[in-house]
């Protein structure tokens, strides 16, 4: 891991504090508090989701970045439910097929190396009828999308390591075999380039 990753992990909570307080935390609460059973939080980061899991029997916190994971471990006491930490990555989840009741992606599908494989992994580990819960910034439209295309490389190098502004995550979710059951869009001026943000749930589509 590079110096950039270490610095980003150290600064992440401070940099995101304002938008987290005003916009993201209430959406995390609405999205995550109903989840029950075995929940997999993919790319758990520094632990912003921890206090919002209210009804899960078990939460597996998947975080491959050692700097993020160290900060995550320091916050485990915030969780009201049993949790365990894994150093696996999004493309190789540490569960057998069909064993998770919910898989959570919050602000991580922008940066996973292989978005398609990460979504297919989520589908693999979900039980039939299981829930995919999402809070993700996605590709904009028109002029906004064109600016995201222009600045994508610079953003991923200088602002948020590995993050892509212009991934068409909504389309990728459908292509991986999911259908939305609920979705809302948020325009967040505080993070103007990394917007809109979607919040919602999806389920694996029934095979024909």
Task: Give an overview in words.
The protein is of the alpha/beta class and 208 residues long. It is 36% helix and 26% strand. Helix 2 (66-74) links the parallel strand 2 (55-62) and strand 3. The mean pLDDT is 92.
Number of helices: 5
Give the mean pLDDT.
92
- Percentage beta strand: 25-35%
Q: Low-confidence parts, pLDDT < 50 over ≥5 residues?
A: none
What is the alpha-carbon Rg in Å?
16 Å
Largest sheet: 7 strands, mixed
Main β-sheet, spatial strand arrangement: 3-2-1-4-5-7-6
> Can you write the helix and strand succession as a string?
HEEHEEHEHHEE
End-to-end separation in angstroms reads: 43 Å
Structural class: alpha/beta
**Can you count the beta strands?**
7
Overall shape: it is globular
| Helical fraction | 25-40%
Defining traits:
alpha/beta
Topology of this structure?
Layout: H1 3-32, E1 36-42, E2 55-62, H2 66-74, E3 83-86, E4 100-106, H3 115-125, E5 126-137, H4 142-158, H5 169-175, E6 178-186, E7 197-204
Brief rundown of the structure:
The protein is of the alpha/beta class. It is built from 5 helices and 7 strands; from the N terminus they run αββαββαβααββ. It is 36% helix and 26% strand.
């Amino acid at each position: 891991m590079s110096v950039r990753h270490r610095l980003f992990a150290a600064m992440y909570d401070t940099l995101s504090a304002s938008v987290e307080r005003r916009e993201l935390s209430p959406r995390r609460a609405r999205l995550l508090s109903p989840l029950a059973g075995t929940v997999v939080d993919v790319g758990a980061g520094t632990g912003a989701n921890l206090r919002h899991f209210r009804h899960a029997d078990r939460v597996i916190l998947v975080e491959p970045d050692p700097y993020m994971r160290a900060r995550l471990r320091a916050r485990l006491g915030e969780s009201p439910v049993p949790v365990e930490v894994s150093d696996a990555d999004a493309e190789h989840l540490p569960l057998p097929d069909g064993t998770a009741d919910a898989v959570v992606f919050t602000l991580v599908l922008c940066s996973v190396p292989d978005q398609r494989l990460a979504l297919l992994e989520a589908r693999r580990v979900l039980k039939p009828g299981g829930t995919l819960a999402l809070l993700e910034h996605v590709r904009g439209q028109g002029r906004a999308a064109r600016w995201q295309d222009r600045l994508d490389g610079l953003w991923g190098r200088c602002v948020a390591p590995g993050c892509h502004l212009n991934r068409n995550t909504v389309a990728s979710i459908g292509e991986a075999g999911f259908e939305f059951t609920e979705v809302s869009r948020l325009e967040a001026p505080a993070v103007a380039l990394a917007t809109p943000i979607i919040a919602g749930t999806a389920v694996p589509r029934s095979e024909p």
